[in-house]
Specification:
The protein has 671 residues and is α/β, with parallel strands linked by helices. The protein has 23 helices and 20 strands.
Length: 671
Amino acid sequence: MAMAPVAYTIWSKFLKFDPTAPIWSNRDRFVLSMGHASMLIYSTLHMAGVKEVSNNYHTGDRESVTIEDLKTFRQLHSRCAGHPEYHWTSGVETTTGPLGNGLATSVGMAIASKWLGATYNKPGFEIFNFNVYSLAGDGCFQEGVSAEAASLAGHLQLDNLCWIWDNNHISIEGNTDWSFTEDVATRFVAYGWNITRVTDANDLQKLQYAFKVAQRESNRPTLVVVDSHIAWGAPTKQDTHGAHGAPLGDVEIAGTKKFYGLPPDKKFYVPDGAYDHFRDQLAANGGKARTAWEEMFSKYKSEYPELAEQIELMNSRKMPADWESKLPVYPADAKGMASRISNGKIMQSVAEACPYFLGGSADLAPSTKTRLVDSKFGDFMPPSTGWGDWSGRNFHFGIREHAMGAIMNGMSLCKLRSFGSGFFVFSDYMKPPIRLSAIMEIPVCWIFTHDSIGVGEDGPTHQPIEHLAMMRSIPGLVTFRPADANENVEAWRWIMNSEHTPSVLVLSRQNLPTLDRSEYGAASGVHKGGYILKCAAPDGNPDVILIASGSEVQLICGAYDILLKKGIKPRLVSMPSFNLFEQQTDDYKESVLPKGIRARVGVEFAGDFGWGHYVGLDGKFVGMKTFGESAPLSRLLEKFDFTAERVANVAEEVVGDLSDESQPKKRMRKN
């Protein structure tokens, strides 16, 4: 209730948004970072008459949020979920809930506006110039991700970004003075922000003045501090934490309605004229702006057809025609290269083929090899710095992994194909935005290198052990760990053709041999998640199945020859993506891993979580049971006994154990 005047002022007076075309690409964005206040956005969408958009981007006649939807707030399948959900309720620009992430995501949206404008605007054609507003509470400003994002936004001089702080001094436990007494405004001055304050959330004139100040700002983002009272108008619960996360109750609601001059006995009541008053203002602002934009874009298509086609492809999450022809094919090479190296080379080809493919790293591009190296790709920086401009496709997020992830999501929500990279162990910092990308079904590409004990000398703090299990466990996320350069190519082919699925690439620091595909199965098997590399049993009934991903595929290839010499017929299975393999038909999965073949060995420089599904109760896993150690990789392989000989010995043990089990037991002679 306290923020209703703020939402009203932004939407009716400033937001360039047309409810009849809620995914118009140059609309202003409004992000409710304090997602627990979701009824504010739902009631606003209802009052605005925002239309529902289908999965194929068609805007229909049904309203996104009806009165009946409001009545099912927080109920199963309701469009009014407990926290706002993108792709579920039209008009919600991003899923919010984990506090602070909405603020950080809005930075990605503001970045997208700057990049799109610099890339596609032409004289007389200002195709992209949208602003971004994000409303947040005390909790959002306490979370570290908002500090990371605010620091970067100030550095980047994002003057198209406005954050609004609902400064009500209340959190779930009580008054924020118990835990949060810093001078937030001064902190933001240090970040390079413009600060303005409204001391009364109900003062519409001062609110309008504050947002006009934000619009006039030319080289700084703006923070509007709005002093408010939680549960404004509630007779006994105003300014109490009891109003934060619990219903007011019928008596309190009746008293609040009386305070507002509304009939106490009427529920879901909208006064006469309220709809027209609100919707007419939106039509006069966003509606007219959208109509003028479409007329302009029609002329733009005539003058700049190639650029217009790029915009239309981007907005439908499509790739340019024939883009796959740019992808390389790597010849067999016993030495090979680290998958982070091959990945960097492939990314250059992707960047050439897709003009809206862009991203960066958390200060690790020289190590992750994700810089787009051609000078034409440039660096995203304020032009005044002399280090780059707004059209640069290389981003420097600094050592801000969490914010980087949320910013990547914001860029993707504006239909850019964003990527971000770092060391795999630091995916711990990025779990919330990675998870949110999967919930929202947006095709962000998360790139992580230094994937195992192969990191070597940096030791256990930098050697991922449990991280693969974490990534593979996230619903809707596809994780790839390629075994060689050609598997890496095929992973990118799948990633860039995916329109609604985020992906993770897990890459090595050490060299991986490039397999001879005349001897081994085609790398296109990556698209199935797992595939047969080689099988010594012509009848399809091997004695044992060896399964591995990434750098450990070379171990099972070495074990193959050892086992053959011992008279054991192995099958080799490369499993670059558990997630994709599980999406295949039962018949395909049976063809790769027949249920009747119980002798199986899994190999991975990681913990065994998830592997039991593939090796079964009779199989064994060769992997890590502890954290790593600091030493060169060669010494670590000795220490943890990762050799082809050990894999072969374990396979022989499994085959032997099952063979003993199948032998008929001799009866004991009775005396």
